[in-house]
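Minutes, project check-in
Item: structure for the 341-residue chain
Input as provided by the requester:
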Amino acid sequence: MAAATSVVLLDRGNNTTCTINFHGATVVSWRVNNQEQLFVSKAAIFDGKAPIRGGIPVVFPHFGPWSYGPNHGFARVTQWALEKGPERLPSGDVEAIFYCTDNEWTRSIWNYQFRLTYRLILREKELHFIIGVYNPSKDLTFSFNLLLHTYFKVPDVRRCQITGLHGCTFIDKTRDMVIYQEGRESVTIGEWTDRIYQNTPQEHIITNVVSGRKMRVQKYNFPDTVVWNPWSDHSKDFSDLGEDEYPNMICVESGHVSSPVVLLPGTAFEASQILQGEAIRNHSKINHLNPILWTNQDQCQQLKRKKCNRQISLKHKLFILHEPDPIHQWSRDFLEALMNQ
């Protein structure tokens, strides 16, 4: 392993922390009561060049092999910057906001202007992610994929079960991209697995993660869920992954990858994810994170005609959703931050 690159530490107290590496804005550690929740390979490279094997890399603007540039795009191998924080909120939670923009290198690969903003909030037993993509161009539309490539640490992947995938179609990348339908109530892994589940629900629960506990994954504006484990068949294909490490990881990834997001000039796209460890509460919080892309006035008028109780305002020619809950009123500030150049 090379020398570590620069990181930002979010510390909520009670041995609950989150560490983010500036290289790719990759979350490389999330500890709850001093228990690590994420898998990072012992062979991971921290040289500021290669993607970090494990944690939560950001995939943008392309998912998978890319003829124009690095696999899974350039966001995970780009140096990000800190826009805000770490800052303690009145609730005791800790947040930080990272960003990256196009540069000469990215434009040589993918000739578009963009701004990514990545907001992380560390709660007592939760980690919140809000990621936004802004197109500052006045005349160019671009399309992209976006995904949070989450590696969960598990004692034995063969004992894990993933809920919320029953009945979903999936693209099986291990079988020549053939499309199947998932018939199992809970998905288990016992072989090389690389699947893109499409139009998945907003919530999954993964059983038997750290210390046999459960992990709840909640997502918004991420219609796909990728499930991946290289198994013994392909672990040896990765120089930054130990051949014996695959039983201790499971990737359950929230993304928008089976079809691209098309982003018009002057508009933004926002998506969110919440990771919630045990104890899992009965109510869902995903309704507090309802980022919506408003691209034109017609959409706003449609919302008004539906007599929705949310207020819409015009800011920099972008319509922004105002959340009524002041504790979770993130969308307005977040999207405004996207547009600050």
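Outcome recorded: Confidence is low (pLDDT under 50) at residues 282-330.
No further action items on this chain.
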